[in-house]
Write a structure and sequence with these properties.
With about 220 residues, this protein is an alpha+beta fold. Helix 4 (about 100-115) links the parallel strand 4 (about 85-90) and strand 5. It has an eight-stranded mixed β-sheet with strand order 1-8-7-4-5-6-2-3, with helices on both faces. It has two domains: about 10-45; about 55-215, Glutaredoxin. About 45% of the residues lie in helices and about 20% in strands.
Length: about 220
């Protein structure tokens, strides 16, 4: 008596059941989910100008600092070391640059969204550059308006002398919002400036974030 061949669909179902029972299968799936958004962003920017990040010397170094975030919690260099982070610069009372400042915050929100699966590997830090008026309460209102997650995207300020020192490392004058953001690596070295008033700069920034992640994992 001949036995009918097992339907192809049944073979597929059996294989799927077998794989689902293997922990390594789920580790692979989780790894793909974690890295896919940033890899997609890097591929999407493949036609951008050639990048020399690997061979580019550090532009500067961010000194040790400790400031306060929108919740009144301390944030300093020790918390950021070992992670890639993006610095931006705004003010609660931003006139006459409110339109530009809002665009920068919108771009930062886009960067956050497109790197959302990178977890602790990346941070966004927005320095509010007018310490006399940028109180934690007002920074908290600003962060809530941007739906910023306090653990990943922090708004920070502090006493004028301390803030002025760290802003100087970024070549930013106090009380001067900026349209450019700064990429900093895990060794607190400045790796690039990006004027996000230009939409193409976000793509360049995302690509360099991906390259830095690759370098850190080597």
């Amino acid at each position: 008596m001949l036995v009918s061949p097992r339907p192809f669909g049944a073979h597929v179902q059996a294989l799927a059941s077998a794989l689902a029972g293997k922990p390594v299968f789920w580790l692979v799936i989780i790894g793909v989910m974690f890295t896919w958004p940033i890899l997609r962003s890097i591929r999407a920017e493949r036609d951008l100008p050639p990048n020399l990040l690997q061979n580019r010397p550090a532009i500067g170094t961010v000194r040790a600092f400790t400031l306060r975030d929108q919740n009144g919690d301390a944030l300093g260099a020790a918390d950021l070391r070992g992670r890639i982070w993006v610095a931006s610069f705004t003010a609660v009372d931003c006139e006459p640059m409110c339109a530009q400042s809002q665009r920068v915050l919108t771009r930062m929100a886009d960067v956050r969204h497109r790197t959302r699966n990178l977890g602790d590997a990346i941070r966004l830090v927005t320095f509010t550059v007018d310490p006399d008026r940028d109180t934690p309460e007002r920074m908290r209102e600003l962060s809530m308006a941007q739906r910023a997650q306090s653990g990943v995207w922090r708004f920070v300020s502090g006493p004028a002398p301390q803030l002025s020192d760290v802003l100087g490392d970024f070549q930013v004058a106090p009380r001067t919002p900026q349209t450019r953001v700064v990429l900093v690596d895990g060794d607190m070295a400045i790796r690039g400036y990006y004027d996000v008033d230009d939409e193409a700069a976000v793509g360049l920034l995302l690509r360099d974030i991906g390259l830095l992640l690759s370098l850190h994992r080597e």
